[in-house]
Amino acid sequence: MAKIPIKTYKEIEYIRASCRIVAEVLKILEKYIQPGVLTKELDEIAEEYIYSCGAEPAFKGYGSDEKNLFPASVCTSVDDEVVHGIPGNRQLQNGEIISIDVGVKKNQYYGDGACTYRVGNVSEEKERLMRVTQESLFKGIEQAQSGNRLHNISAAIQLHVESAGFSVVRKLVGHGIGRELHEEPAVPNFGKARTGPLLQSGVTLAIEPMVSYGTYDVYNSADGWVWRTSDGTPSAHFEHTVLITDNGPEILTLIS
User: Fold this and answer.
1) Do residues 130 and 97 touch, judged by C-beta distance below 8 A?
2) Domains of the chain, with CATH numbers?
């Protein structure tokens, strides 16, 4: 089992700075999300703000295949798109939901966060999906305690989601974060409590439940990036970067 990095005070401050920009971007974009807006317009707004903060978009140019690196600064995933939606000429329609995932790199350290937004007026089913997904994120964060096992987070998320009749996506997981965008450990959104690595103060995690209205099965699109639900039902995604401390979890991507 790979070692989970423990961050120093200085590293935590760098991560905190990147996370604040993530939170600010998500707050700024909220007021632009409405019917008729193009997803590429949201990407442009986010990119401009990130650079204005002396930071870099973490996702732009990311990937292991040099011929197919991620081409945008944020991910815009609509309805049945679970994650990694590529901004473009898609025009948002009333009744859709859109997940926006933002990654920021500043001082060589990363922050990561996501939120799902309603476009205009959405159905009661989508409202409930969004609410339960966000609630499950906070249920997981409550378990991000020094001395707990990692899968306490996973089990708390799974229990809340499945109790509401929804499905936790299993092929995609959260992750550690810091000097790298994706570090150890993997943070699944399903699992058995009191299993997995021991959590310690100084660990930073990106906790991110991805929840589908129907099946938990997903597939990767032909572009190699966008993940979609296999049954075409909508999916919601919420994410926070969290620091484990001796006094409990601190959410680094949360601003008032």
Assistant:
1) yes
2) 9-251 (3.90.230.10)
